[in-house]
Design brief:
- The protein is α+β, with helices and mostly antiparallel strands and 174 residues long.
- It has one domain (9-173): Beta Polymerase, domain 2 (2-Layer Sandwich).
- Helices cover 48% and strands 16% of the residues.
């Protein structure tokens, strides 16, 4: 099944990944946020932890990038989203936490619109049960429509979820 029932284990998984990354980026001026569906209590999700690393000065990106490269990540560009850089694990590296727990890692400047969208949508879902339930139902329907295929699900989600998230963010800004 593509979508799994919510588990508090996702919060622990985030904390484990965060701790490991902070060790590798020790001394750098950054913060980290658990974002995405696994960061919202009681929201069923794909069991993949989404994390934003946030930096505050332009020069810090290269330092973070260098640190992540030494930890076994590679930079995969912004994948079409401005001010949100994607990092993925290199195959063959061994880290009992970073290679065991599925996660998506993004690096964003503090003024990034993508970061703002991540935080606002996460917080809205955390604070509005009706929105969380509606979003969860949408995810199950898309997974069924995709026949539980991850790639098709991702495409359908991209097409269908953005409007829902935009409407949540608009309500926050009113």
């Amino acid at each position: 099944m593509l979508i799994e029932k919510y588990t508090s284990k996702w919060i622990k998984d985030y904390a484990s990944i965060k701790c490991e990354i902070e060790k590798g980026l020790h001394g750098l001026n950054l913060t980290m946020e658990h974002i995405g569906s696994t960061s919202v209590p009681d929201l069923d999700s794909k069991p993949i932890i989404d994390i934003d690393i946030i930096y505050y000065h332009q020069g810090d990106f290269e330092k973070i990038k260098a640190g992540l490269l030494t930890m076994g990540y590679y930079h995969n560009g912004n994948q079409g989203i401005e001010n949100r850089e994607v990092f993925k694990r290199n195959i063959g590296w061994t880290n009992q936490i970073l290679d065991k727990i599925k996660h998506h890692l993004y690096v964003c400047p503090a003024d990034s619109k993508a970061l703002e969208r991540h935080i606002l949508s996460r917080n809205f879902l955390r604070n509005n049960d009706w929105a969380r339930l509606k979003y969860q139902q949408m995810k199950y329907e898309l997974a069924e429509k995709a026949n539980q295929d991850k790639k098709i699900y991702a495409e359908l989600k991209e097409l269908n979820v953005n409007d829902f998230i935009d409407s949540m963010i608009a309500q926050l800004k009113e």
